Amino acid sequence: MLKLGALTIGLMLAGTACSSAETPEQRQACTDNAFQFCQQAIPDRDRVFACLVQNKDVISPLCREALAAFLPPEPPPKQASKPKTKSKPTAKTTSKKVAQPLSLNPKAR
Hints:
By secondary structure, the protein is mostly helical. It has a domain at about 1-70. About 45% of the residues lie in helices and about 0% in strands. It contains four helices and no strands. It has helices at about 1-15, 25-35, 45-55, 60-70. Helix 2 (about 25-35) packs across helix 3. It starts with a helix and ends in a 41-residue tail after the last helix.
């Protein structure tokens, strides 16, 4: 039974190898991780993949590399927004400059 599960996982991961540049080492790492973290999902290929994705923080770096091509990109980290502080009102400067109305006639100046 264990060999059948290993064969199923091997075939499952071999199918994804055709579409990506997966190495035998990455395939073996994912197989090992599937048995370690996702044994309850075997032999369902989609459930094993979903389980590996859910455990992406604990699976091996080689398996994470192999899965990266099938995962959505990570969102950029949120930048901490600066707290808005109320600025003290500045003293108003009184200007003696009086605004002139805008003249639309270029010759009248």
